[in-house]
Amino acid sequence: MTQTGSAADGQTPANPTNTANATPTAAAPLTRRAARQAPATTSTVRKVTPVRDAPLPGGRRAAQAALAAEKTKASATARKRRFLAPVVLTVACGMFGTVAVAPAFAATQQTGSAAATAQREVRATQAQEFSVSDAVALAGTNRDGYGATSQATLDQEAAQKAAADAAAEAAKQAAATQAARAATAKQYSSYSGPSAEQIAATSANTPFSLPAVVATAKQYIGTPYVFGGADPSGFDCSGYVMYVYAQYGISLAHSVPLQDAAGTTIPESQAQPGDIVVFNDGSHDGFYMGNGMIMDAPKPGGKVSIRPIWTSSYHIVRFGI
Questions:
Q1: If pLDDT is split at 50, 70 and 90, which confidence band does 148 have?
Q2: Based on the domain organization, do 215 and 280 belong to the same domain?
Q3: How far apart are CA 225 and CA 206, in angstroms?
Q4: Where are the alpha helices (DSSP H) in 39-59?
Q5: Number of Cβ within a 10 Å radius of residue 1
Q6: Is residue 306 situated within a structural domain?
Q7: The domain that contains 173 carries what CATH number?
Q8: Which residues make Cβ contacts (< 8 Å) with residue 193, sequence separation at least 6?
């Protein structure tokens, strides 16, 4: 069999453009010398960069901006989560409180109702007690023949007793004063006629009038003042009044307070000459002469005379009515 082709025809021509795509399966590594000797072959080989190592569009600044945006978004998400956490907790507490308040409010209402009921019962009890007290107050206090005395009655009785004691003490002092005056008058008196008591006993039928009293009293103007005097030889204030009124059958004590108690107090607007002016402190008396004047036995060294009343602290007493 004749072979028409040469040895070179039987070999596959080398394709320099496909050497880069060929997969080196069992090729031995090139030495430095071999690499230097084959520059054409290595220059035709183009290095392929993996897609994952390709730079981002826009360069490094765009990549940094995208990274910053991612971080900002993550930070905002974190802040949102931190903000929502207390809000969710607050809402949960509010819901729990709403659920728990109803039973507590119901319990409070029950407690308040119980307290209100207790207060109403106390008021009702007090009202019953008050009603019972009223019934007791309105009921009769007499029992088994004995009667209760009110406080007002007791106070009135106490006041009456005090007044009676005061009157008794005043009478006792007046009697002592009268006795002292009589003893003094006996020492200095030259009068030998009847006493005022004897004249009053024998003059019961003598007609009485205030003008007649004034006329009799004026007969003794100029009589000297004598302490304890009760006759024309000398008068003191109450002895003068006693002696004049005795001549009309009116017997009076030798004492200003007792003469005041024996008469009837009248308004000054109704006073007439012949009535008696009595000082409020019981220290002096005399015959009222009208127009603010008095006829009296004044004081030691003085004489019976008519003079103005020197004080407003007095009242008018009338005898013979």
A1: low
A2: yes
A3: 27
A4: 39-43
A5: 2
A6: yes
A7: 3.90.1720.10
A8: 231, 232
